[in-house]
UniProtKB/TrEMBL annotation:
It holds the Pfam family zf-HC3. This is Zinc-finger. It comes from Actinopolyspora biskrensis.
Length: 83
């Protein structure tokens, strides 16, 4: 499933951006300045470790809204309600 954003490790978190990824890549190469869904301009990182950084909570909220799924807070509340 394709979405109108791309995840990018930068600034010690995984962010999401609507900026176009330079062809022919599927992800941003290291050192590219991108605008994020949380309103920052960050420089992309690369490597396996960078993809293990925590997800930016603000980018996560916006991406969930874009794809129409519940926020983390809503999901957590639903999980607590099942006990």
């Amino acid at each position: 499933m394709s979405h109108p954003f791309t995840w990018v490790p930068a600034a010690w978190q995984r962010h999401a951006s609507r900026d176009p990824v330079p062809p022919p890549a599927a992800e941003f190469p290291r050192g590219v300045v991108v605008s994020t869904l949380c309103g920052q301009e960050v420089t992309s990182a690369s490597g396996e470790l960078a993809w293990l950084w925590g997800t930016c909570p603000d980018c996560d909220d916006v991406t969930r809204e874009i794809v129409g799924v519940p926020s983390r807070a809503e999901t957590a509340a639903e999980g607590r309600g099942r006990s």
